[in-house]
Amino acid sequence: MIANYLIESADGLILIETGPETTFTHLQAAIEREGFDWRDVKHVLLTHIHFDHAGAAWKFAQNNAKIYVNPVGLPHLNNPEKLWNSAKRIYKDDMEPLWGKMEPIDINLLVPLNDGEDKVIGGIKFTTWYTPGHAIHHNAYQFGSVVFTGDAAGVRINNGPVVPPCPPPDINLEEWKKSIEKIKNLNPELLYLAHFGPVDLPTKHLSNLENMLDDWAAWIKPYYESHTPAEEITPKFVEYTRNQLREMDVPEPDIVKYEKANPTYMSVTGLLRYWKLKEEGRI
Predict the structure, then answer these.
(1) Contact 71, 95 (CB under 8 A)
(2) Alpha carbon distances (Å) from 25 to 63, 75, 90, 177
(3) Distance of alpha carbon 104 from alpha carbon 129, whole angstroms
(4) What residues contact residue 202 under an 8 Å CB cut-off, 6+ apart?
């Protein structure tokens, strides 16, 4: 449910996303199965700093790998205490079993990447695109005709439908739609999702994501307007989203994977916050 991508270069291996610290041993084993040593990863590109994408970055930094990240997220990798405590309010006792540990990364190993910035690593050129909406610290990375999209292009399990991950606190539909349009305008041949794998019809996929984003936000809005508590909304939204997947012929085991990759209760909280900020004129 969490994809990491490995690219060979003349200056060591490039890794896109790390997953959390709890999956680090699996990542090591996967790199070895491809015939490489994880210590040869010299460059790590993070689409954003959520734990399922960046939680194990410090492990590579301990081996002096450079960690590339959006400037907004960079300080939180140098000093992750605030990020950790914020997430712990959501995950509570599940925090460490899910994500493991997150230790500070030396500021000298952290490299900020801005919108439209070209970078060459070991003879391989890529371009960074700022893609907020899911998170204010979100980048996508274009390598030629392919784009590594993090969560900006949603979650899709085993060729099922795409759904939008909407955790608090940064969900912004307007910004997300601009990011979707930005990725479309790159005319990529393939998208590589963090959850999970390649997408070979990018325009159709991204249009479907936009439609589902509107659908979920519209479903939540009346509950926000009636001041319904999140704990009362969540079981109803779980049933709504599961029925959506069933109507699209998603098998039950994959519905479980969708829920693990994109927990429904987090989208309830994230979209309620979106409508609150919208009402207050802060979006």
Answers:
(1) no
(2) 15, 26, 25, 36
(3) 25
(4) 147, 153, 183, 184, 188, 189, 190, 191
CB atoms inside a 10 Å sphere around CB 178: 14
Quick one: pLDDT band at residue 93, thresholds 50, 70, 90?
confident
In this prediction, residue 114 carries a pLDDT of 98
Query: Which of 157, 153, 175 is CA-nearest to residue 165?
Result: 153
Residue 189 in contact with residue 145, Cβ under 8 Å? yes
- pTM exceeding the 0.90 threshold for the entire prediction: yes
pLDDT in tens, 146-193: 999 999 999 999 999 999 999 999 999 999 999 999 999 999 999 999
The contacts found for 122-127 with CB under 8 angstroms, 24 or more apart, are: 122/9, 122/10, 122/11, 122/12, 122/14, 122/43, 123/9, 123/10, 123/11, 124/7, 124/9, 124/10, 124/14, 126/45
Cα–Cα distance for residue pair 174/8, rounded to 1 Å: 36
Q: Which two tokens stand for residue 114?
A: 């801005």
State residue 84 phi and psi, 5-degree precision: -65, -45
Q: In whole angstroms, what separates CA 265 from the centre of its chain?
A: 17
Do residues 141 and 128 lie in contact, with contact meaning Cβ atoms separated by under 8 Å? yes
Instruction: Give the SS3 label for residue 168.
Output: coil
pLDDT tens profile 102-140: 899 999 999 999 999 999 999 999 999 999 999 999 999
Helix (H) or strand (E) holding 211: helix 202-225
